[in-house]
Design goal:
binds zinc ion, 4 strands, alpha+beta, about 100 residues, 4-stranded antiparallel sheet
Length: about 100
């Protein structure tokens, strides 16, 4: 696998935000996973009547974690990129309980 930095000198375009190419496979995979979780979590929350804020995604030692809050009732939803065996990928009050509003 070629590293992107090895080709940087020859390429006039900045490829950092380009989705194609093999060099950033790991990053793309991680993003896809967390994005999929975010969409699933939002669907569950919307179904319960919540109006969720934007997810804040944080990189931790355990992979990416995301958190969002309902604008109306302030319930939280959490997403975990790499949950431990005793954890779940999507959790929080907002996916378990209906919105108060
Ligand atoms: Zn709510």
């Amino acid at each position: 696998m070629q590293r992107y930095t090895a080709r940087r000198g020859k390429c006039s375009m900045h490829g950092d935000n380009v989705a194609s190419g093999n060099n950033s496979n790991m990053e793309v995979k991680t993003m896809t996973k967390i994005n999929r979780l975010r969409i699933e979590a939002l669907e569950s929350c919307n179904w319960r009547g919540h109006d969720m804020k934007r997810f804040s995604i944080t990189q931790t030692h355990q992979g990416k974690v995301g958190e969002s809050e309902c604008k109306k009732c302030k319930m939280l939803v959490h997403i975990l990129d790499k949950p431990y065996p005793n954890e779940i990928e999507i959790g929080g009050e907002a996916v378990a309980l209906n919105c108060f509003d």
